[in-house]
Amino acid sequence: MAPSRVLLVFVFIPAELLLGSGSSKCVGRNFGHDSVACECNSTYCDSVGSVTLPPLGQYSTYLSSVAGSRLEAGRGRVQAQTNGTGSGLRLTVASYQKYQRIRGFGGAMTDAAAINILSLSAGAQEQLLRQYFSSEGIGYSVVRVPMASCDFSTRLYTYADAPGDYDLDNFMLAPEDTNMKIPLLQRAGAMSPRPLSLLASAWSAPAWMKTNGALTGKGSLKGQPGGKEHKAWARYYVRFLEEYAKYNLTFWALTTGNEPTAGRMTNYSFQALGFTPEEQRDWVALDLGPALHASSHPRTHVLILDDNRLLLPYWAKVVLGDVHAGRYIHGVAVHWYMDSFIPAGISLGTTHRLYPEYYLFGTEACAGWSPADRGVKLGSWERAEQYAHDIIEDLNHYVVGWTDWNLALDRTGGPNWVKNFVDSPVIVDVERDIFYKQPTFYSVAHFSKFLWAESQRVGVSASGATPLEFTAFVRPDASAVLIVLNRSSAEIQFEVWDPAVGYIPATAPARSLLTIAWNTR
User: Fold this and answer.
1) Residue 131: what are its φ and ψ, rounded to 5°?
2) Rounded average pLDDT over 39-54
3) Per-residue pLDDT tens for 354-410?
4) pLDDT-based confidence at 23, cuts 50/70/90?
């Protein structure tokens, strides 16, 4: 529960709150949930800006909380006492314990996201993209791109809808690509300080390739792996890469298809293509892998699964256990839905131990997807906590990156042709030419802004039982980052012990997310 003084501010100044620190503060709006959303327009938006660490012997902190802090910056001096700071709880960083390296964080440029971004004025569009991708933004480096339509489209389509076009002579990108997604990806790439890692996922093959003759519902590819439909579907992937390359957009990776179990369900409501793990294994070995290898994009990574982690480690055993398929595969893509049904150690941890040469990558997550908690909730800190908890849990179980779902949605959580409305870190209000940065935006920022590519997870342990959740990394420049989530209703004082530099006194306010960063040399 927020401190009473913040609640009093909401009562007496309900129109607008300036929250945070520095010259660029959050314009907080209260929509009746447990915290605020930050309002942005064409001329103003809060920003943490470019981050530089203080000299050796000092540390920086960045705090977001239910009470309204949004990446609020602070500094302090590392203490060199022999016995610590006197805090009852100590988090010890063990830099010699080394684990996976970070690849990146980001979100998805769906049709819906592009529609919403482009619905704003030119100035507001630029502002929104800068918040995600510029050096002053939150460091997004990964963008997932649906291949043709998904539920977050306004219509059903693929790039090869002409029946029997096995050679894909009529393959053509859609207006949604050429008029919306591609221009926005080019703009995002131009403002990013590093090349964007684009990730492609397909929802469905053309209806004429499928057993049910439809993009939706229960259906898989006709025939068998190695057959003409399976080879045409692999060729479709290559053509997609080739067409985007004409716009100077190259893909770091592609997945074998979004949520293959969905196409095995009866009357699935939106686009899906069913695969069993055995079918996916053989399609990669006989069709997709060879097609990519022979193409002009042989270095594009292939990620299997692209579905919920409860399917692991079984799915990985079937696919990666096959030497013919495994040689074309680089990683395993996981979604966050239904995470509560299986512990991360059993699914992610076991998969890593069995197949350490393949990386784990989070490719989709969103709040508001559950029927019990559906749609947009402007200002929901609880959802920010859900994000942070999941990211920390994933990172602590060998995941190398985490991708949110839609980059931007409207006030209803769409558009979505099947009305599968959800939430997004950015919500657009086109009538007012503004957008709101949700608490979830800042939740991801605590990771994406500070965990640069090639940052390596290191050991960290608590001196006793604590409700705090945490993860630690050493960045390529040898600086250290510790991210701490406090979901409890009590303030928790603790100290960080890094043998390389000393003790850092810290406080995690009730229901807060704290990033601490310091130089080690």
Assistant:
1) -60, -35
2) 94
3) 999 999 999 999 999 999 999 999 999 999 999 999 999 999 999 999 999 999 999
4) very low
Specify whether the CB–CB gap between 144 and 403 falls below 8 A: yes
Residue 322 and residue 369: Cα distance in Å, rounded?
34
What's the rounded Cα separation, in Å, for the pair 487 and 76? 24
Specify whether 259 is catalytic.
yes
Q: How far is CA 519 from its chain centroid?
A: 27
- Alpha-carbon gap, residue 403 to 448, rounded angstroms: 10
Residue 83 has a pLDDT of 72
Per annotation, catalytic residue among 39, 176, 229, 364 = 364
Position 84 scores a pLDDT of 73
Q: What angle do CA 412, 413, 414 make, to 5 degrees?
A: 95
d(CA 409, CA 429): 9
Instruction: Provide the CB-side half-sphere exposure for 497 (13 A, CA).
Output: 17
Alpha-helical segments (H) within 339-413: 344, 350-354, 381-395
Q: Helices 182-191 and 122-133 sit at what angle, rounded to 10 degrees?
A: 60
Answer yes or no: is pLDDT of 20 > 70: no
Residue 303's Cβ-count burial label (10 Å; 0-12, 13-18, 19+) is buried
Contact indicator for 338, 371 with CB cutoff of 8 Å = no
Tokens of residue 399, six digits: 């995941």
Other C-beta atoms within 10 Å of 97: how many? 12
Residue the block writes with tokens 């995690």: 508
Residue 39 bears catalytic tag? no
Q: From CA 305, how far away is CA 347, in angstroms rounded?
A: 13
- Give the type of residue at 56: L
Q: Domains plus CATH for the chain? A: 4-100+456-518 (2.60.40.1180), 103-448 (3.20.20.80)
Examine the pLDDT at 5 and tell me if it is beyond 50: no
Smallest CA-to-CA distance from 181 within 106, 254, 109, 108 is with 109
Predicted pLDDT of residue 230: 98
Tokens of 520: 């080690």
pLDDT at 266: 77
Query: Is the model's pLDDT at 175 over the cut of 90?
Result: yes
Based on the number of CB atoms within 10 Å of its own CB, is 50 exposed (0-12), middle (13-18) or buried (19 or more)?
exposed
User: Mean pLDDT over residues 257-284, rounded?
Assistant: 95
Global pTM reads: 0.94
List the catalytic residue out of 72, 229, 259, 495: 259
d(CA 16, CA 6): 13
Q: What pLDDT, on a 0 to 100 scale, did the predictor assign at position 9? A: 34
Residues facing residue 429 across a β-bridge? 434
For 266-270, 472-476, 513-517, which range has the lowest pLDDT when averaged over its residues? 266-270
Q: How far from chain centre, in Å, is Cα 327?
A: 27
Q: How confident is the model at residue 87 (pLDDT cuts 50, 70, 90)?
A: confident
3-state DSSP assignment of residue 98: strand
Helix axis angle, 111-118 to 182-191, nearest 10°: 70
> How far apart are alpha carbons 39 and 28 in whole angstroms?
6
How confident is the model at residue 398, as a pLDDT? 98
